[in-house]
Amino acid sequence: MAPRKRPETQKTPEVVVRPKSKRNRSPWELEPEAKKLCLKGPGPSRRFDSGCLWAGLASLRVPPPCSIVRALHQHKLGAAAWPSLQQGLQQSFLNSLASYRIFQKAAPFDRRATSLAWHPTHPSTLAVGSKGGDILLWNFGIKDKPTFIKGIGAGGSITGLKFNPLNTNQFFTSSMEGTTRLQDFKGNTLRVFASSGTCNFWFCSLDVSVRSRVVVTGDNVGNVILLNMDGRELWNLRMHKKKVTHVALNPCCDWLLATASVDQTVKIWDLRQVRGKSSFLYSLLHRHPVNAAHFSPDGAQLLTTDQKSEIRVYSASQWDCPPSVIPHPHRHFQHLTPIKATWHPRYNLIVVGRYPDPNFKSCTSHELRTIDVFDGISGKMMYQLYDPESSGIMSLNEFNPMGDTLASVMGYHILIWSQEEAGKRK
């Protein structure tokens, strides 16, 4: 049954999915049943942004498994180019998205989810933080009750969340409570790395490098702090004029730092040469405030998401050259967790939630709130995921390190997408 069409002017409540049953549900009640995925097809009731989705899918030529094996053998013998083999594998993955379903769902928080992080070595475990400061550690591959850490409530929003690479039973958080800290999943604070000491200043982002043993965090007035793993502050500088929404260390050159801000810039820094606010390598100007800046897994590209309608891809070899710009509706709304595009961990693909905007150039009537997958090189739309029973705005979407399971944050809800066959095995 097709989802009911919404009038173009209808407002979206923050939580849009309700259980069909009217009985009270425990916040821990998970929903393992697979949801039937509504795949969009051509026709008067399923129109797409520039028709690019079906054009992209129609152009795919997925090599059969034997061809991939043959290509791997030829590559080993030096007779096949790695880029062509990688492209074949990427196309096979895109083809598999047709079988992706929501097979697990949880709604443990009393306020919307604001951050998520996959466990670096366990493919079915993730941590999710909420606006109230609550944190959930969830291994959805087992039936055991997830670990839940209660936050302080109002004013405790978790703005950044990272597992400790040196001890994955621990995690780093930045929060509106005014701290960046290291905690364990018993709720104990192991070390406070930064503390504002006042409700007027709080921390909005963080990242960690295991090789350099450093923690970097940004606050709401433009300051960025670099600390070592022992908590010793290396420097504290005002690098932006306004809130630092995101900080990211390059996974291959962890002395390279990207900072994003609502001052409409993303700045690139060499941590070995930082002397002050003007010592950046590049300042990448945007037309709107910026929500995020993510380096690609190979460190060769930088993906930025603004607060309105642009996703940009910059090349690490030519930071000052015009970026690849992907028009995409994801406008900022005060009571919505900011939308941030992310990279697939294995392929040159971009994943981002859609917030339909009637003012967007190619917006169609009754456009659905999909999860969009773009090619990171061409910027072409390759696929859209949608579930009619979970039709809210997917603010955060990240694949696990294996690249086969997708976690989404939709209002109060955490959704786990996987291939239908894999979902049945869980």
What are the SSEs and their pairings?
Blueprint: H1 52-58, H2 65-76, H3 82-96, E1 100-106, E2 113-118, E3 125-130, E4 135-139, E5 147-149, E6 158-163, E7 170-175, E8 179-184, E9 189-195, E10 203-209, E11 214-219, E12 223-228, E13 233-238, E14 244-249, E15 256-261, E16 265-270, E17 282-285, E18 290-295, E19 301-306, E20 310-315, E21 324-327, E22 342-343, E23 349-353, E24 371-375, E25 381-385, E26 396-399, E27 406-410, E28 413-419, H4 420-425
Antiparallel strand pairs: 1-28, 2-3, 3-4, 4-5, 6-7, 7-8, 8-9, 10-11, 11-12, 12-13, 14-15, 15-16, 16-17, 18-19, 19-20, 20-21, 22-23, 23-24, 24-25, 26-27, 27-28
Helix pairs in contact: 2-3
Structure description:
This protein is mainly β. It has one domain (102-425): YVTN repeat-like/Quinoprotein amine dehydrogenase (Methylamine Dehydrogenase, Chain H), CATH 2.130.10. The chain is 9% helix and 36% strand. The chain contains 4 helices and 28 strands. It has helices spanning 52-58, 65-76, 82-96, 420-425; strands at 100-106, 113-118, 125-130, 135-139, 147-149, 158-163, 170-175, 179-184, 189-195, 203-209, 214-219, 223-228, 233-238, 244-249, 256-261, 265-270, 282-285, 290-295, 301-306, 310-315, 324-327, 342-343, 349-353, 371-375, 381-385, 396-399, 406-410, 413-419. The strands form 7 sheets. A 4-stranded antiparallel beta sheet has the order 1-28-27-26. A hairpin with a 4-residue loop joins strand 3 and strand 4 (135-139). Helix 2 (65-76) runs antiparallel to helix 3. The longest helix is centred in the N-terminal third of the chain and has 15 residues, at 82-96. It is globular. Keywords: Acetylation, Chromosome, DNA damage, DNA repair, DNA-binding, Nucleus, Phosphoprotein, Repeat, Ubl conjugation, Ubl conjugation pathway, WD repeat. InterPro entries: DDB2 (IPR033312), WD40/YVTN_repeat-like_dom_sf (IPR015943), WD40_repeat_CS (IPR019775), WD40_repeat_dom_sf (IPR036322), WD40_rpt (IPR001680). One of its GO terms (molecular function) is damaged DNA binding. This is DNA damage-binding protein 2. Residues 1-29 are annotated as: Disordered.
